[in-house]
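This is your field. Have a critical look at the following sequence-structure pair:

***
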Amino acid sequence: MNLPKIASISKKIVVALAGLFLALFLLVHMGINLCLVRPDDGQWFLAASDFMGSNYVVKVFEIVLFAAVFVHIVLNIILYIQNRKARPVRYKRQSKTKTSSTSRLMMLSGILIFLFLILHFFNFFFVKLGWSDGKYMVNMEKVNECALNGEEEVVMAKFADFERGVDVKSHLSKDGKWIYNLTSEEAEPLRGVEKVKADFYHVAADLFTQPLYSIIYLLMFIVLGIHLTHAIPSAFQTLGLNHNKYNGFIKWFTWGYVAVIVLGFSAIPVYFLFFF
């Protein structure tokens, strides 16, 4: 019995399961992000992001998601290194096989996706944690509730400080629920009244109206599409779900799924660059 081989197969199965989980999550993430292109001043997207940021089930799912990303990346690196070490000594003239070319392509595209993920975290998730600066918002309804619950003097004093630095009407959402599109300094006077949350709608709007960021975003989803066209069939094969009877279906399903993901996410920068 060869234990290293069993360990390697186990790693591949975990990588495949984590990869398929992440691929499915992309569909959910795309659905939420497409709320950005709805012409409602960000109301749907703000409601979705507020729910995602306050629901405890979602918070548990977030931990699972980060664990899947970590496991997928780390195990892929380990498998790549193990495969390199397991190869026989190379001759000066080495024939390039389809397998080795695909392996290099997957590693390169994976590195690019990881680098973009760091940028994405810096612009969005780190803003939520307060590790990087962005745009912020406050729930106006909860500010009013504080005033009605016997804290009127404190609330009014802090709100007066806030009004001295901000034109409230220009930062009020259409439904009157949010005071949004605030810088960290502008939101500071309200921090003692109500929780100041990240305003991901205006963070996204500011980023996607920058041509350079939108071009990088579009290119990275093309890279992700290339990565997925190889990763999804490979995951099914690792899990033993490939067969001549339905390999054709897996192939066309993969291409269809990748097309939906790439086109769906690409619609967002196109909207902000040309129709916002």
